[in-house]
């Protein structure tokens, strides 16, 4: 009896170590950086990016995936200040309705003051893979992003990494910092979603299949209508069109169906995976967090399909910013009066002055 169970135990230990060895050699050999060049239409987006697109190939959930990203050296475009190995790196995380390129002004500003800037597109977005089947979680996207940094040999022991996220990217930046506090030196969130738990406030669950129908029907007028009211508080400038068309291009592109499906899974992800309860645990190792909000931002996932009494409770960033800043350790709150969900676009100068001022104030 004892011998049998001992033999069983030894067998189990041997077979599981074989499995572990296989997994580690498998993931070790299958992650790589491809510097391209790539065709204009990459994974269903033919939007022209401001800098060369590279691809991080890796294995995730038993499939080969690619994350597209841009990697700006410090002091790009300043020939008198040649790029040098920089101990500072910034990682810029896009929101659900944007892609890496929307950060271009932030990226050039950070590069100008000496940051290497990594700008990924998450799996399911933009020029990255759009898998037919994927268990989307904020943790999985954070893990993918951490894998990209490792593949680029960005070692947090010798490099300070500043993580900056907007909207869904802000929620992801919070999750990333909770998972990898030793990697994140400083955290900055710009109108992050997830400052409240919408489901706890009464937002009804919606089937992924229903979200898919809405996503698949997206077009210029539906995207612009949404962004005009929540991002820009009713105003519009022709310079905002480029970001709408960048999305229309994907919805109508060669991977449009997979993109709409991935985006429906993303809606489910942010609705069901709150971070707000963990804000008190945010401890980037540099000790500081910046929270930027437009006080007229009204973004709230599920507001569109909630009853009016629930709608009235959601998305009050004038209140939510202060609430979050009171809970997050060492948090600096910068409010942009009269602005909505995208202060980095609507008041780019004011935003970059606030961001760079905070970064240099340590
Ligand atoms: C990281 O930033 C801290 C200040 O927050 C500084 O003391 C430290 O030297 C920096 N580390 C590197 C590797 O630059
Ligand atoms: C755009 O989408 C909206 C909502 O899905 C729809 O009502 C409208 O007819 C569409 N417009 C065009 C020009 O297709
Ligand atoms: C991208 O695709 C759109 C159609 O979706 C087309 O109008 C446009 O010319 C393409 N642009 C490039 C750079 O290929
Ligand atoms: C707050 O941030 C500063 C750096 O700006 C750091 O020196 C200090 O230790 C932090 N305090 C806490 C409680 O983390
Ligand atoms: C920084 O951003 C502002 C707009 O916000 C832009 O006008 C300026 O050119 C940028 N600076 C650099 C060095 O890229
Ligand atoms: C899923 C998918 O289509 N992935 C493609 C993304 O783009 C890279 C680079 O061209 C391709 O190798 C992948 O097949």
From TrEMBL:
The keyword Signal is annotated on this UniProt entry: yes
Organism: Diplogelasinospora grovesii
Pfam families found in the cross-reference section: Abhydrolase_1
GO BP of this protein: acylglycerol catabolic process
One GO cellular component, as annotated: membrane
GO molecular function per UniProt: monoacylglycerol lipase activity
Taxonomic placement: Eukaryota, Fungi, Dikarya, Ascomycota, Pezizomycotina
Domain spans labelled AB hydrolase-1: 91-202
Keywords assigned: Hydrolase, Signal
InterPro entries per UniProt: AB_hydrolase_1, AB_hydrolase_fold, AB_hydrolase_sf
UniProt-recorded name of the protein: Alpha/Beta hydrolase protein
Keyword Signal in record: yes
Signal peptide: 1-21
